[in-house]
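Schema walk-through. Below, the input block comes first and the output block second. Nothing else is stored per chain. Lengths vary across the set, and this one has 371 residues.
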Amino acid sequence: MMNAKLTSLLLVSAMPFVAAAAEQKLTPWYIGAGAGINNYEPNCDQKTMKTCGKDDPFAWDVFGGYMFNDYFGVELGYRNLGRAEWTDYSDVRNDAGVKGATLGLVGFWPIAQDWAVSAEAGAMNYLISNKQQYGTHYYSDSGVAPYFGVGVGYNITENLKLQAKYRRYENLDEEKWNTLSMESNYWGLELSYRFGYSTPAPMPAPEPAPVAAAPVDSDHDGVTDDMDQCPNTPIEHKVDAKGCSIYVEKLETLKIAAKFDNNSSVVKPDSMADIEKVASFMNKYPKADLEISGHASLPGKASYNLWLSQKRADAVAKILVDKYGIAASRITAKGYGETQPLVQGTSPEANEANRRIEAHISFKNKQALLK
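--- output ---
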């Protein structure tokens, strides 16, 4: 009668599951099933047991539960612990097994993401049965036995959990005929399903942020006035993060030519216009430096031509210093002789082209980088 009452209570407790699933939220209700192996003890060392037989240790259970919170709940189930065989001293074959309804408390404790350990304790309203002589004789008894267990589980999904379980059952006794007094050890796996799904709590609506005044960019350079350290930059200039124009240094080079008669270091009058251009350029850019290079034609000894080219370079430098007031420290004069001819050969045309002065003005001109 007690067994029937617990089974009915299990069915009644399972009725809210369908309704909870329809509510579309993670509910406290769950159901599951498990399977494993069971070992009754003591087995063949009881006073009624002479020799062991072949056991059928397969055990299974179904259950349903209700979680009071994330850590604690109550569970109702039905369990079959399998059967064990032996021969008693009267040479009678015995085949005993235990099954029945259970009610207990369960607790869970998370140990890592999706992992938790569990503990349980409760009571089993058991029916112990013995089929003697291959079922030709049968007797049974019932009672209530305590059990406890531990396990470790993994949440496969939010709803589905797999657990490895160990349970110990005490005082599985047949008291009607006083023939059996057993305990039991169970190892198995259980799969459970929790109905619904979790609904995260709605986030509170953020308070509206105060409306800040729009930043002003008075000179339209892309940097607002509160960050601009160089106001009123030209609109065509590229600027840095501080709103200041970005400058680059540009190399400028000016080349001129001055010519001389054969064996002469006197500058020809028609070369004065080019020298004046050099002077104007040097005055315009006071940081510019000047190199005057003297050159000679190929006829004659190389040593003489080197001396003559130096004289020609010195002559042009003297004009720039004396006539145009260019500082001598800004001028370098160097003769290259016949080593850098413009035209190969000793023709009159080649000789005239190679008797020359070149002025190379090089300086770095700082200029604003444009958009």
